[in-house]
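Data card: per-record layout.
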Amino acid sequence: MSLNFLERLEKETLISDGAMGTMLLASGMQTGICPEEWNVSHPDIIRGIHEKYFAAGSNLAAANTFGGSRFKLSDFGFEARVKEFNREGAKLAREAAPEGGFVSLSVGPTGKFIQPLGEVAYAEMVDVFSEQIEAGAEGGADIICIETMYDLSETKAAIEAAKKVCGLPIISTMTFDRTESGFRTMMGVTPEQAISELKKNGANVIGSNCGTGIDEMIQLMAEMRRVDKNVYLIAQPNAGMPVMEGETVVYKEKPEDMAKKTIELVKLGVNIIGGCCGTTPEHLKAIVKSVRDYEKESNR
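The structure for this 300-residue chain is written out next.
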């Protein structure tokens, strides 16, 4: 299936899924619990979340493996279970996928910094990502999605690991905030730098997730499209910016409102559109309808 992923991008706008964390919390997972462990202890819940996103019309689901690196799992004492959690995570998404549906292995930041900013050698970071990615590929992932990154060095290490152990297509997203000098990641990376460096290092699809709602994501994607007219782009905004209600974080962007604005991403030529924090199958169902209706009207 991975062989036709890039071909599909040439022909249509693909819709990815929405937030895994939001759905896990709604399914009863408490904060402070290792999400990836649920791939083993609560497989029916994980598989069911993927099924809901695919039923909503998503073409692509990300496995529940975002924090599946040895460094992140060590926070919970699970560093010896990297292969198990990632393999099972990819397997559950694969079991839920319909014919023609894609599964990506979600690879998030490790929480560590590469020398000289931190204590981790670049080669060690590549090894850490290699362990995670190899297991996910064994579990049935079609694509490696390196997401929510802030640092170019860590992102490059993950891309190198993916190319080293599996050769699957690579999606690479960074998280940007709007600053007085434009969009920047927490580590100061600009959209221009992200596209130039990640494309040069072998990412097939480049873009952004998290950090912003749909309005700022449209502005960010417009900037990225100006930088490169041909690169495959992916946008996964939050359901608005988070607000606190008591001790609970809430995302208030309604499915229908988010879906209407998504058309602007299609007009910009964004190739994959989905959601991040706060988005649910209801958001994705509305986005799918909005995008497909627009495509039908445009092709008349």
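Known properties of this structure: The mean pLDDT is 95. The radius of gyration is 18 Å.

See the next section for split statistics.
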